[in-house]
Amino acid sequence: MSRPKPIGFSKEKASRVLGEKAVDVLIASSPENVFYTCGLPVRAAENNPILFALSNQYPTIVAVYKDGSESMVTWALYNATLSWIEEVQGILTPEHAMDTIIPLIKKHGFERGVIGIEPLMPYYQYEKLRKAFPDAKFRVSDDLFMDMRISKSKEEIKRIKESTRIAEKAIEVMVENVAEGVSDFDFLKIAKSIVIEEGAAGVDHVTLAIGNSDPEAPGTGVKMKPGDITRFDIGAIYRGYNSDVSRHAFLGEVPSGIQEAFDAAVEVQKACVDAIKSGADPKEVSKAAQDAWQAQGRKDPVFITLHSIGLQTEEFHWLDPMRGVSPRKFVENAVVDIEAWSLHSNVGLVGNEDTYVITSSGCERISQLDMKIFIV
User: Fold this and answer.
1) CATH superfamily of 154-375
2) Of 266, 258, 335, 356, which Cα lies nearest the Cα of 304?
3) Per-residue pLDDT tens for 266-297?
4) Which CATH superfamily is domain 11-149 in?
5) Residue 114 belongs to what H/E stretch?
């Protein structure tokens, strides 16, 4: 059986990133970074998420060396040829995993090197590494993984596009079912079933509101009534990659204040699209967005979030209301989610959210849904 090709991981990119940050070996231990560096189905949503379910007993760990080569340990009973990594050893306990990965790192000659680890690495793994390599320097290295992951390969973009199509299909079917008496339980069932039927492995999130219900905690039994606005914010997981799309539907005539706020949010999105390009500074994009909001005559605040999508729904934030503006510039082939919201009493957030890929010339819209409030 031939080994698969890497999905987004690149030996050349890994070697460049580790060299730039003077790290000798980078350890992947979280599901997202393990998947990225080896391709095994270690995520919570897979055809069979057995490696995730049993990760407390049989952890998969990947070591990436400064020349871009890799070593991996994983459950001894799993078919390791599903990964492109050739230096693989099977393990049967967490202790066995560490007793196996440590000699592999020594084999590559980095006992006294700089070892990059994740902040989410289990403590027992860090403790074993620290004791095994007392002369090594350890560095928390989330930035290295993001440096590798933020610019997507053609295959990654293809998967995100399909994930987005699936999420939007779920929204379309939910809109078709908007009617008096329909509950948030009904919408949850629709969203989850459509995502699976359309070929995704599972749902990443179903942010759902009816009227002024809490969108972050749906499933209270609230039912639609005339004059209610819904918020459907869906993320599917397709072959490891996520999506994030949001739309409103209104049962009845949309109040002018709500429609005007929505239209202004769309103008903010368009301003962001015009400003985003490879090398653009998020500060410049933030200013363009605020200028567009104020140009609509708005005096209220607008909440703008620009985040990367990939193996995580909110993989990296260039801009958001809580964290502010990131110094990291936009890069070609990054996938950016653009969302703009305003806050209204008895309704909550009103706005729009779409996904784009940054090309050599600007932004290409991945989302296909009409940028509107759907009226039922």
Assistant:
1) Creatinase/methionine aminopeptidase superfamily (3.90.230.10)
2) 266
3) 999 999 999 999 999 999 999 999 999 999 99
4) Creatinase/prolidase N-terminal domain (3.40.350.10)
5) strand 114-117
